[in-house]
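Everyone, carefully examine this protein record:
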Amino acid sequence: MTMPFTDEDLQQPVSNIIQSKISPMLAKDGGAIELKKIKDGKIFVQLQGACVGCSASSSTLKFIVEKELREAIHPDLEIINVPQGMEDQIPNE
């Protein structure tokens, strides 16, 4: 399905939700998240801090990050975690 928004349209709302809702939740457990890029409606984020190597990081991605962004913006958003050191795998064009 095509997103009804451009990547530029998504930038501000995604950033706001990450900063105001998701980051504080992750920080309680020593984790962090960074928005890396939005490309073709796909949200590329990087879990950081205590989230790196944590066995619950995939659950965090699905049940916190994905849930918050999909509920607030659009149910078909695709959230992709970019492991540390794999930033060059994010599509450029």
